[in-house]
Structure formats: C-alpha cells, structure tokens
Amino acid sequence: xxxxxxxxxxxxxxxxxxxxxxxxxxxxxxxxxxxxxxxxxxxxxxxxxxxxxxxxxxxxxxxxxxxxxxxxxxxxxxxxxxxxxxxxxxxxxxxxxxxxxxxxxxxxxxxxxxxxxxx
Length: 119
Hints:
By secondary structure, this protein is mainly α. 72% of the residues lie in helices and 8% in strands. It has a two-stranded antiparallel sheet. It is rod-shaped and about 120 Å long. Residues 1-20 form the signal peptide.
C-alpha cells in the first residue's frame, strides 16, 4: 500500500501527466470520501450513538495499471523523441566529419602540387 501511495505521488507530480492529474485527484478523492459511518454507543448513555468515520481507500488495480501504462507510454514517447534527436545530431556530425576529411585531402593535394611547382 505504501508503494502504491508513492507511485501515485510520483504520478501527481510528473510534468507530462498534466491532463491526467485532475482525473487521478478526483479518483482518489472519491475513494477517500467513501467512508462508512459506524454508530457506537457509550457506557454512560446508551441512547447517544457516537459517529466514527474512517478513511478507507479501495485501490482499483485496473485504474492503477492504466495510469502506470499511461505513464510508461509517456516515458517511451519522450525517450523515442530523444533518440530521434540524437540520431539526427549523429548524422549531422558524420556529415561534418566527411566534409572535413574531403577538405583535408584537397588541401594536402594542393600543398603537394605547390611543393612540386616550387622545386
């Protein structure tokens, strides 16, 4: 139960879960507000019942699994985006390296030609 609470806190503070925060908050609020009233009589006066309320959270595994699935999908989407950016940067760097190598070859060739002409 403690682990579930930590997961839910993490989900509530996750920046990519903005559209789901309100729904999750409402879901949690409904579960916390579903509190049973237990009348208990006192020894001094058996006619006066005491109303005791307890906060009971009934976790729904399906809802939590769906939220975790959404969280995982959001994380995968973010990671795929970062991979795409890294691949584009990598391709750009490869092109720069090839261009630099070609420029070096041309420069070396011209230096050799200039050296031969000087002799």
